Amino acid sequence: MSKSELSVLTEPVSERDHVRGPVDAAVTLVQYGDFECPSCGDMYPVLKRIRDRLGNQLRFVFRHFPLGQSHPHAQQAAEAAEAAAAQGAFWRMHDLLYENQRALDRDDLVGYAAELGLDTDRFERELAEGVHEERIQEDLSSGMRSGVNGTPTFFINGERYDGLLEFEPLLLALADAGGIAEMQVSVRRDNLELRDTIDRSERGAPAAGQALRDLFSADEIFQRITATADEEVNQSARLLFFNGLAAGLVITLSFFARAVIAAAVPRGPTDLLASLAYPIGFVFIVLGRSQLYTENTLTPVTLVLTRIVSVPILLRVWGIVLFANVLGAAVGAYLLATTGVFDPGVGAVADEFGEHALSVEWSALFWKGVFAGWLVAGMVWLTHAARDTITRFFLVYVIMFLVPAGGLFHCIIGACEVFYLVFRGSAELTGAFFQFFVPVLLGNTVGGVVLVALLVYGMTRERRFPNRNYRQLELSWSEWLFGRHTGQPRTVSPRDAPADSEESTP
Prior knowledge:
The chain has helices spanning 38-54, 74-85, 90-99, 106-115, 120-129, 133-145, 167-178, 181-193, 218-233, 237-264, 272-275, 280-288, 300-305, 311-338, 344-359, 362-385, 389-405, 411-423, 429-457, 477-482, 496-500; strands spanning 18-20, 27-33, 58-64, 153-156, 159-161. With 506 residues, it is mainly α. The chain has 2 domains: 5-193, Glutaredoxin (3-Layer(aba) Sandwich); 221-482, Glycerol uptake facilitator protein (Up-down Bundle), CATH 1.20.1080.10. It has a 5-stranded mixed β-sheet with strand order 1-3-2-4-5. Helix 2 (74-85) packs across helix 5 (120-129), helix 14 (311-338) runs parallel beside helix 18 (411-423) and helix 15 (344-359) crosses helix 18 (411-423).
């Protein structure tokens, strides 16, 4: 087969295909995709933006190309999409699968079918019996005849597209192929005038301010925070746990460094020189994007306050990350207490940190935790307002320095300090938990959430998400309080919604 033959679509679009858009559209885009493919997942929001931009001038076709050896859930997900298609819900299932790529087990698929209001008994039976395997194999075969050897692969008006898999290059290629003059002019103008001033992430968060390039408005900072929050709530439990465990271990470095410096210049547990070492672990965590309770778990509060994500989803993220952080901090404290890493002088200073924490009254610990939570929430806001790593580094360093310098407490590093005492046999676990950890945890949470509510929600109350009718994203009160739902606050147009509700064929 010649190279030219591998560059054309051998199986023309027909009534058997899953199609969005009118048969007489100016341009047809065919995608061979895999529901578990990360690159396909990256292209999903890009394709939604392109469909919104071209409207009825685009006919979009999806064909299956599951790469079973690389993606073990891809075949089953493709069959689930076809089982949903049998009940008139292919595109709605297609969207759910791409929006939940990390959850494609059989139980997850059945849950999506129930969420869409499908006949789940029929859905499960068709999956179990492999009713739709032949249909998927037909797509695979047609793709291989057209030279498809990976995903995603696109064909524009029957010709293979080998350009960049990004919004503007693909949009321009579609406009050129369809002879859409006004779109060609618009895209090229956008490239010249806007590329250097406004860039956006996959989830729609701006990378530059609109009024001033190096200064964001409150709404623009809010968009960046909600993009981070969307990423947090969509992480799998496994990823949240291991990132949280890593953060708990890394926070041990703050305890270690502070004890070493305090022992070298012994002036008490809140000495300013020793406090300079306190932010080290937080720098690793914030810049390395690990999961630390208060830092990373504050951003999802924005989606709960705007009723885009349910309370149980938030509690799931909080619970997994908090447990993993405490476990990591406990492992780090155990190693420091039992392996001889600390010299006797350093160990004595480390003891002083824990003893000082346990000597503070419950109510004082709570309020010290509240103020520390305010500082952390302010740091989260400012790091999203910053546009470079150096600025974020200094923000994290200066703000977290104020916690020990002001005699305040952070629940995770404080847990490491009191765990150290427990493993040294100088404190009881239950006493350390109820006397120290509980009040500081409550204080950090209350302080952080209150400031997030004031900064993130109050300042952006009327304009939550640009170019999107946020009321289409809002959960009902029962879903918000009891459900496990998310409204997916990516920047897309409301015009997507009606097109998703029905199957369309050429």
